Amino acid sequence: MPTLRKSTLFFLLVALNLLVLAALSLHAEVRSGQLPAQRAASRALVRQLKLSDLCLFTEARYTRHPAMADRHAPFQDHPLALEHFPSGSLVSPPALRREAK
Fold first, then answer.
1. Among 22, 52, 61, 66, which residue's beta carbon has the most beta carbons within 10 A?
2. How many structural domains are present in the chain?
3. Rg of the Cα trace of the chain?
4. Helices (H), 1-94
5. Which domain holds residue 62?
6. Distance in angstroms (rounded) separating the CA atoms of residues 101 and 77
7. Closest residue by Cα to residue 51 from 65, 69, 36
8. Which residues lie below 8 Å from residue 71, measured CB to CB, with a gap of 6+?
9. Per-10-residue mean pLDDT, the chain, length 101
10. Which residues touch 74 (CB under 8 Å, ≥6 apart)?
């Protein structure tokens, strides 16, 4: 079996990546037709379960429900307490809280 040059391997890798990208684009196009039905089902489930908002983190109440948290929840132990939950540094305050300052 002849050995392939590095440039040939590179172009084969690029071609394979382009093929995967095309397949992903085709998959997204096919799935986008199913999106309205899924969104309607999700809205019905939220209405039925009476959910408030999306829960992204499970650590602290002010990161679980950022739309419903008060401003002082991260500092409930002490006003100068350090953040001891990692998700607290990832979640910014809701837009209404930022504008209220």
1. 66
2. 1
3. 24
4. 6-32, 35-49, 61-64
5. 32-100
6. 22
7. 65
8. 93, 97
9. 87 98 94 84 88 75 70 66 73 60 54
10. 60, 62, 81, 83, 88
pTM greater than 0.70: no
User: Residue 66 domain-assigned?
Assistant: yes
The whole-angstrom distance between residue 82's C-alpha and the CA centroid of its chain comes to 26
Alpha carbons 61 and 64: distance in angstroms, whole number? 5
- The tens digit of pLDDT for each residue in 39-65 reads 888 889 888 988 777 777 777 777 777
Q: What's the CA gap between 100 and 16, in Å, rounded?
A: 51
Residue 77, token pair as written in the block:
């132990």
